Structures are given as C-alpha cells and as structure tokens.
Amino acid sequence: MFLSVTEDLVRRRAEHNNCEIFSLEEISLHQQEIEKLEHLDKWCRDLKILYLQNNLIPKIGCEELKKLDLTANFIGELSSIESLKCNIHLKELFLMGNPCTEFEGYRQFVVATLQQLKYLDSKEIERSERIKALQNYPEVKWKIREQEQAYLLKRAREKEEAQRRMQERKDEKQKQMDSKFGFDSPDSPQEKPNQAEGDGEQERCRTVENDDEDRKFWEEPTPYTPESRLETHRYIEEKRRAKDNGRESKKREKTAWTLVTAEGKVLNVNVPKLHFSLKDDEENNQIILDLAVYRHLDTSLLDVDVQPTYIRVLVKGKPFQLVLPEEVKPDSSSAKRSQTTGHLVVTMPKAKEIILAKQKVSASIKHSGCNIQQKTTRRNGQVEKLEVDPSKYSFPDVTKIIQEKERTGQGPIKLQPQKVTEVKKSCVDFENDEDVPPLI
Length: 440
What we know:
Layout: E1 3-4, H1 7-12, E2 26-28, E3 34-36, H2 40-43, E4 49-51, E5 67-69, E6 92-94, H3 106-113, E7 119-120, E8 123-124, H4 127-135, H5 137-183, H6 195-219, H7 226-253, E9 269-270, E10 276-281, E11 286-291, E12 302-306, E13 310-315, E14 318-323, E15 334-337, E16 344-349, H8 353-388, H9 398-408, H10 416-426
Parallel strand pairs: 1-3, 2-4, 4-5, 5-6, 6-7
Antiparallel strand pairs: 7-8, 9-14, 10-11, 11-16, 12-13, 13-14, 15-16
Helix pairs in contact: 3-4, 3-5
Protein name: Leucine-rich repeat-containing protein 6
Region (Disordered): 158-224
Family: Belongs to the tilB family.
C-alpha cells in the first residue's frame, strides 16, 4: 500500500519547530514509504529544505524550495522535474539512486530544464556545461521521452510479477496453516499426559520454521522495485509484531516473585536492585527508609505499601520488600520524593515507642522531683547544721580582726557584715553628745 504525505506525518516530523507547520522551513521525510507529494506546498509555504531519501516517489512535485533531496527513490519519469521550473529559489537537487539517473542524457536534461540550479547531485553546474546542454536540449529531451516509455512498460511487468509472487506466498501460508490444524487433534487422551513435552517440541519446531522462512525470504533474489521494498517493509513489521506478542505472552506467563512463604514468613526482596538505607530515628520515635529510585522515574510508576512489620514498594512492577526491626503505624506513615536526589523517603512512626515515651517522661519527672526534694532537704540540712554545729565551719573572729587592725594600722576590713554586727553590739553603751555633729 502506497502512502501520501499527510498533515499528521508532517506535524510529527516537525518536532524541532514545536510541531508548527505553517512556519516550517526544513523537514526530513526519509524512509516513510511515501509515493505521492501532495498538499505539502500548501501546508508549508515557507519550506526551503526537504529531505525525501529512501521513499517510493515516482514523480517530482514541490515548489518554494531551496534544497530538494530525493536520493534513493523510484523516479523514472524524469520529465516530471519540469514542475520545478517555476521554483526560482531551488539551488540544490539530489536524484542519486533513482532509475532516471541511468538514462542517457540525464544530467544534460536536468541542467537544461532547471536553469536556476547551482548544484546537481552535489556537483556544481558550470556555465559552459549549461550552455552545451541548452544547445542539445531538443535531441536530449526526445531520448529521455523514449527511455521513460520503456521504463513505464518495465514497471508494469514488475507490478504483475510482484502481485503473482504475493499471491503465491499467501497460498503457501494458507497451506501451512491448514496442515498445522490438521495434525493437531484437540482433546486427545494420549497427548494430555505429555502436554508440557508437546508444548516444548512445538516451540522448537516453530523456531526452526521461522529460521527457515527468514533464510528463504532474504536469500531469494528479487528486483529492486517499489513493490519489493514494500514487501520487505511488510515482512519486517510482521516479524516485529510477532516478537512483541511473544514477549508480552512470556511476561504474562512469568512466575510471580515469592514475597511471603507458605508458612507466612515475610521475605526481604530487592528485584529492582536499588540501593537503600534504613534509619532508626529514636529521637522522633520513627523509622526512615531511603530508597534510591531513579531520579527521572515517574512517581506514578511507584506503589508503596506499609504494613506493621514490613514495607513493600513496587518500582515499575518490580517488588522491593523489607522486614522492619520494629512494628510501625501504617496509617501515620508518609512517603515523598526527595527534591534533590529523587529518592523515595518513607517515614514510619513506631507503634510501641509512643507508649514507652510517655512512661519515660513521667518517670523522669518523678525522678527530677525526687532530686529537687533531696536538694531542698540537703540545703535545709546544711542550714540546720550551721545553726546546730557552727564549729564545723570556720568563721573569722571579729574581736581578733579589730585587734589586728589596731595593732597593724592597716586599711579597712572587707568583712562588712561582721563590722555591722560589732557596731550593733557597741550601741548598748552609746551616749548622745550634742556637741558632736551628726553623721552624713
């Protein structure tokens, strides 16, 4: 089935221009199995460079271009380049690998037809070459027309041959399917006991058949035509789909990982092979798990399940399971992604430590209260000891200090409280003398 250039295809190939096609100046549509170039000049009015290598284009049709690359297509109607005459901006044209390049007079015809060109197939066009091509243009053009007619007849025969070969392959496949279902007898009692053996044998036979089919397909000589290219493309797509389907079926048949034994014992499992750390935060009575998931992994691909004795995290369907050293409270647990590393951080408050923490606090309060009482009692005891047994502590003798002062004639004594006491004692024999001025 031949394809045309669609608006959706152009938008998908215009990612470098934010998928905007109205202002698109360059686009690559190589290896898209394109046969027709339609509406491209209307969608992309500013298009200047177009790459169309390895497609199925038989005719040329594009305008407002500066560079057009049609390498390895199936352009056999060389006269179709006349549609590019009005494109005065076209400077480079690539037609290598097309059937028309084998025509006699190919380069002279293109150089004479498109006089605005500067390069053809990466080779600069000299002024003398163009003058010579213009002189022989009528004769060269007639030869090109004859070769085009011969090419079109050849293409008609190639199409018929391709259709015949395609029909033969379909009939052969149908015969293989019929023979396969004919040999398989469902509900056969003799085959049921050896069903596993039969499945394995069928798988090996299927692999051998596929290898033989591949070898036959790639070794069979075929002409290089648009039909053979399409057939190859179809064959590769079928093999790819079959491989994908087989891979999906194997995933569905894959045995689930053992996370809990038959006896109910929870196992430690790390299928995604991620680094992790488990921290016991005694200060905040919680356990913290730091799981080094990939920084750019989408959070929607993570599934966290916290249980009282273990935690399970599914990373893209692969389980990570870890048995916890203490029981935790799943309802109070939280999970978040680190903003710097992208790691998954799960905080799990401990279940038992909450009660123990209250007991410890009350005990510490009682203990501190006892200490206060003991300190108060000790302080009171010290006061009582000072009053009861003053000889245990040494206090300066006030009378001796006064005598020492009178004898040595030194400065004032620093023990003011004792001086006040002494003054109070001497006030008993105090006499008021009016001639003495009052103290300030």
